[in-house]
Amino acid sequence: MVVYLIPVATGFLSVYLAKVVYNRLVPREAVLWAMEVSRRYRELEREAARSRRAAKKLREAAPEAKRARSIIFKSIIVKIGLLMAVYTVLGVVALTLVPAIPSPYKLPLITLNTPEGPVLSSLFAHFFSFLYAALLYRDEMV
To answer: In degrees, to the nearest 5, what angle opens at C-alpha 122 toward C-alphas 118 and 125?
Structure first.
């Protein structure tokens, strides 16, 4: 019975593992700094339409904002790449160890009808637990 929890555990583990590796690769302070610089630059853009002084400050802040956008873009690419890679690898592991889980309910388009009764593919369990874990850890992966 505990064997059926493997797909759920791999779903949570994939998000947690991606979070740990992401926090090691991308410094949190750098991303927070980049988000703050980007916010200030957007405020300066709004003010620049009204005054020349703000337009001058906007030109001076442009290189820093460009660097901040680059950091934010790289962090997003690293985050998505890590999530996809770890999710795929652990999904294959879950599917190899437990191909199907017996289900007490017949769910259209999700469960498969077999002579032993309805079964749920372990990829569905892995996917749904992955989504739930991603919602739980969303604040920690800035």
So the answer is: 95
Q: Which of 89, 107, 99, 106 is nearest to 123 (CA)?
A: 99
118 - beta bridge partners? 113
How many domains, in total, are found in the chain?
1
pTM strictly above 0.85 = no
Q: Can you say whether residue 119 is alpha, beta or left, with left for phi > 0 and alpha for psi between -120 and 50 degrees? A: beta
H/E segment holding residue 82: helix 52-97
| Distant-in-sequence, close-in-space partners of 133: CB < 8 Å, separation ≥ 6 | 11, 12, 14, 15, 16
Q: How far is CA 19 from CA 59, 80, 129, 141, in A?
A: 36, 11, 15, 6
Q: How confident is the prediction for the chain on average, in pLDDT?
A: 90
Q: State which H helix or E strand residue 77 sits in.
A: helix 52-97
Q: How many residues does the chain have?
A: 142
Tell the residue number behind the tokens 């337009």, with chain if given: 55
Q: What is the pLDDT of residues 88-103, one digit of tens each?
A: 999 999 999 999 888 8
What residues make up the domain containing 25?
A: 1-140
